[in-house]
Amino acid sequence: MRNIKLTIEYDGKKYLGWQRLGDSDKTIQGKIETVLNQMTDETIEIVGSGRTDAGTHAYGQVANFKTESKMTVEKMQLFLNNQLPNDIVIKEIVEVPERFHARYNAKSKQYSYQVWNSEVPTALHRNHSYHYANNLDLEKINEACEFLIGEHDFIGFSSLKKTKKSTIRTITSAKIATKDEMITFTFTGEGFLYNMVRIIVGTLLEVGDGTKEVSAIEEILNQKDRQKAGHTVPAQGLFLDRVSY
Amino acid sequence: MRNIKLTIEYDGKKYLGWQRLGDSDKTIQGKIETVLNQMTDETIEIVGSGRTDAGTHAYGQVANFKTESKMTVEKMQLFLNNQLPNDIVIKEIVEVPERFHARYNAKSKQYSYQVWNSEVPTALHRNHSYHYANNLDLEKINEACEFLIGEHDFIGFSSLKKTKKSTIRTITSAKIATKDEMITFTFTGEGFLYNMVRIIVGTLLEVGDGTKEVSAIEEILNQKDRQKAGHTVPAQGLFLDRVSY
């Protein structure tokens, strides 16, 4: 069997998220599998690097699938991009060794989150950012980002209920960049818990506007208490930028 | 009468353009006037700095209107942004002298045009750019831009039929910038003819991919022949950035 790796860009606005839900036509995985089934006359199941939530976007989600098809990867890419809706694009397609697994082999992921920080909302970037009007102290946010870096139990920054699985994760980079009214938060790490990026951003915004102290980050990590963390910012500002192997 | 100046950002995707057409609810001007009528109980007519085509966007369209209303401009801005659809945003609102006229007093305008230059299309920027897959020689495009600068008869770069009005315009700046696969063309000038920016960009792309020579720009300006110029690129890549007074 050939093993094919896809790098996928998508605008999550119209979808229920990455993961196929029964026969629903409203997931990214479902859309791609439907086209792959047409293309190969097989029943293809693709393995994503991980789920993304309803409304979340990706510049570089990664997935793989096995096939007996003899089609070249160049032809597959053309077929897919012709047949997929224009809010899903196969950016890259390569053949990989049979043992490659998009989820198990993922070494790190980069997510970014866009915040439109102005009293006045944005018309042009409204679908790709979260409007947050409060004045923000970016120095404080930068300080708070430092406390996130390293290996921690991030359960306090997650929507998970108690779980037997480990909730320890490592964040290797957490930073912000600004361009006009847009603030982009970027996080790199080995993996992220459910809603972790969105709750971290909500907490950092509350640090920035003075609702919380910078030290709140350490408290939430130590006390593992979701109640102490900030709000879960909406999915439309979140992007899965890149998955590294 | 008070005279109020609006600076407006909009996503043109769903609209037939700036200018109100009868009772149609599908124009930016129409949408804003409807809300202003509710707000003031008057019949307001707003004057835009100029039209924008169906599908064209704006970061900073400018318009003005006269009113007897005693409302503060801050309250007007809140009312408008609450009532307008979220693809139209009033970014700024100020009271100006009664003689101010958004069209007659406009000294210069800046437009930009986004081209997604890659074999593979873009999912996330698809509504705000034009996908052009051919390889482009950016040096040649830069050279061609130089020929546009200055006072010229731009009728060859316009969709106008013969007209008695002057088709002489002055472009003070024409340049490109790239970020990843996105090329942004930016033009500043005293005013632009109908479709002029879109035909200039289409011509520059054809210079860039080798279909036309750099010298074609001079020929089109001299011969005033629309047939010699490039294709009219689609409206979705075009932005009215700024109007200066």
UniProtKB/TrEMBL annotation, chains A, B:
- Reported EC number(s) for this entry are 5.4.99.12
Catalyses which reaction(s): uridine(38/39/40) in tRNA = pseudouridine(38/39/40) in tRNA
Q: Which UniProt keywords apply?
A: Isomerase, tRNA processing
Signal peptide coordinates: none
Bilayer-crossing regions: none
What does the record give under GO molecular function?
RNA binding; tRNA pseudouridine(38-40) synthase activity
Residues recorded as binding substrate, renumbered to this chain, are: Y111
Query: Which GO biological process entries does UniProt record here?
Result: tRNA pseudouridine synthesis
User: Active site located where?
Assistant: D53 (nucleophile)
Q: Which InterPro entries match?
A: PsdUridine_synth_cat_dom_sf, PsdUridine_synth_TruA, PsdUridine_synth_TruA_a/b_dom, PsdUridine_synth_TruA_C, TruA/RsuA/RluB/E/F_N
Q: Name one Pfam family in it.
A: PseudoU_synth_1
Task: Give residue ranges for domain Pseudouridine synthase I TruA alpha/beta.
Answer: 8-105, 144-245
HAMAP family found in the cross-reference section: TruA (MF_00171)
Q: Which family does it belong to?
A: Belongs to the tRNA pseudouridine synthase TruA family.
* Biological role stated in the UniProt entry: Formation of pseudouridine at positions 38, 39 and 40 in the anticodon stem and loop of transfer RNAs.
Q: Could you give the subunit structure recorded for this chain?
A: Homodimer.
Identify the NCBIfam families for this entry. Answer: hisT_truA
Protein name as annotated:
tRNA pseudouridine synthase A
Species: Vagococcus coleopterorum
Write the gene name: truA
